[in-house]
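Fill in residues.
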């Protein structure tokens, strides 16, 4: 066999090896996740007022971004600020609740706040009341809040640190377990 014959066989072999290599190293088709859906809508820099069944304000929400999940009919929110009324017959102030992330159930009866949660209001005497935690679940219709993690409650002269918060937002009553209390002198 001449040198041209050997060159042809060598080039044909190289072409076959290259073709086989390309075939096995090709990128697989992108996998589409099952159940992955697009949002119904996205709101940016908005204010939303949610009403309860009787037409009274349940809560007001302001945030830079909200995305609605069409399957769950829930809302995912970035850096939400909620205003939760104390109630029609409450003599205390509304609650201002902030967090890094928020979630609202389809019926608007549960709010889940996560990351640097701060809730502020005033008591019947006009003194500030605040709660800080990493997780807070708020039930606006029943004016309740719960947290399974460490929570700090502050009032003038008193700081409470504890676990498993149960709070009545309209009455400004809190129940904590494993509590550590610190009393501070307040100016008169």
């Amino acid at each position: 066999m001449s040198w041209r014959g050997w060159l042809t066989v060598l080039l044909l072999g190289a072409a076959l090896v290259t073709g086989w290599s390309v075939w096995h190293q090709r990128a697989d088709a992108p996998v589409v996740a099952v159940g992955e859906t697009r949002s119904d809508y996205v709101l940016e820099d908005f204010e939303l007022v949610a009403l309860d069944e009787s037409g009274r304000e349940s809560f007001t929400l302001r945030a830079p971004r909200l995305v609605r999940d069409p399957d769950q009919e829930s809302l995912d929110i970035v850096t939400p600020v909620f205003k939760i009324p104390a109630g029609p017959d409450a003599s205390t102030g509304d609650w201002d609740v902030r967090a890094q992330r928020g979630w609202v159930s389809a019926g608007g009866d549960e709010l889940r706040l996560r990351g640097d949660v701060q809730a502020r209001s005033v008591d019947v005497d006009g003194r500030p009341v605040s709660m800080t935690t990493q997780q807070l679940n708020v039930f606006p219709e029943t004016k309740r809040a719960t947290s399974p993690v460490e929570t700090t409650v502050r009032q003038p002269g008193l700081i409470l640190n504890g676990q498993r918060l149960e709070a009545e937002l309209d009455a400004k009553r809190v129940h904590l377990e494993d509590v550590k209390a610190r009393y501070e002198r307040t100016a008169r």
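Residues 70 and 143 are 27 Å apart (CA to CA).
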